[in-house]
Specification:
Elements: H1 16-25, H2 30-37, E1 42-43, H3 44-51, H4 56-68, E2 72-77, E3 83-88, H5 90-93, H6 96-109
Antiparallel strand pairs: 1-3, 2-3
């Protein structure tokens, strides 16, 4: 049986899956990295330049975290020269419609930040 709050209504709760999704995607740089990779595979330096303001160590940590979550995969081309790039996995690509809709919503509803 659910609890009734002092206002006489059932307390509101957030869906746990949505809480986990926003917790992970809302973590600094994760959502931005996924959105950047929506345009196709990119190398480390290309990602760093495209995003701006992210340190090499943070970028490396976030890419590892996204790979561990099976959203991004690391591709190694033995070369020569050896090159490494990153691309979205099928699970990462499944986020594209949601991120595209969120981008459209932000353009229509959020004012540009002072740093833009």
């Amino acid at each position: 049986m659910s609890e009734i709050s002092a206002t006489g209504h059932e307390p509101r709760t957030c869906d746990d899956a949505l809480r986990r999704a926003f917790g992970f995607l809302g973590k600094r740089w994760n959502g931005i990295l996924i959105a950047t990779l929506m345009n196709g595979p990119a190398g480390f330096a290309e990602l760093r330049c495209a995003i701006g303001g992210i340190s090499d160590s943070m970028l490396s940590n976030r890419l590892s975290e996204l790979a561990e979550a099976n959203l991004v995969e690391r591709l190694v081309d033995p070369g020569p020269p050896v090159s490494v790039s990153y691309r979205l996995t099928e699970s990462g690509q499944a986020l594209m419609p949601s991120l595209t809709a969120l981008t459209a919503w932000a353009w229509e509803n959020l004012p540009p930040s002072a740093t833009d």
